[in-house]
Amino acid sequence: MSLSGHEEPWHQWREAQAGPRMHHAWLLAGKRGLGKMHFALAAARELVAETGVSQPQGQHPDIHILTHLPKDDKEERKREEGKPFELKRNISIAQIRAMQQRLNTRPTLGSRRAIIIDPSDDLEKGASNALLKSLEEPPQGTYFLLVAHRPARLLPTIRSRCRVLRFPTLSAAEMARIVAKEMPQADEATRKAAISAAGGAPGAALDFVSRDLGKLNLLMEQIAREGDPNFILRGRLADAMGARPDRGRVLASLDLARSVLGGMAADCRADQIEPMVEAHAELIALSGQAPTYNFDAGLLVMQIGTLLASAAGPRDRFNV
């Protein structure tokens, strides 16, 4: 099933498949939450399927997926028990080396195999360098699909060896339709906040709704409007975030804070413009660092609140 916004990527992919020489490496680029991994899996199955060869319904022996592993043995046991578990921040060089060992053998069911790396922009430096060697000299019948939320983080030499498939963001109307269909239990205010924060990425919007970020959104808007001279609102923001928020909730809160400032920009006072722009820039920088840096979640939430408070303008400048 093709997701909304995937029509052009599918057109380009199938046109390439029908051509005389399929490119061996593809970069699936776009915001988080656009369904790029969904596309990668479906495209890989099309790629490795051969006429007259029965294809398994579940895991495919010729489709290899490299993604974040559990953080440690304790988290691995949680995964085996079906419990929530914490992931490593990066895809390691050991994972790339293990994949390269498999490339020394022939595909299992046909003449092609696919390697999916999700997200490729979370490769360790050593892993990126190791992957580059495979991209430079790909084994016959091997195709790479690199999912990337932030393609600029990839080595330029990796990007240059890939054909890029860009995944567009969706309109507000299409986002509203998807969220209403998938999350009918959510109230209207929560849906609107999620759609605004997701910036055209339906998967991100659904994630926001599932994480129940409505209270966070209201507090962030209040802090950005009024400031927080007594740190009371920032304390409430930390309480609403939770004592031990997982990385996904923290990243979602950063996107939400950026959305709050973006939504207020058109109606802000003249003396708010400069501090709002500065706060938004700082939030963008934090959003880029947070997925890979080992931040203390509590301190990061307070920093988000402080940046929002600074956007309230000069009246709060000396209390943030």
TrEMBL record:
GO terms for biological process: DNA-templated DNA replication. One of its GO terms (cellular component) is DNA polymerase III complex. It comes from the Bacteria. InterPro entries: DNA_Rep/Repair_Clamp_Loader, P-loop_NTPase. This is DNA polymerase III subunit delta.
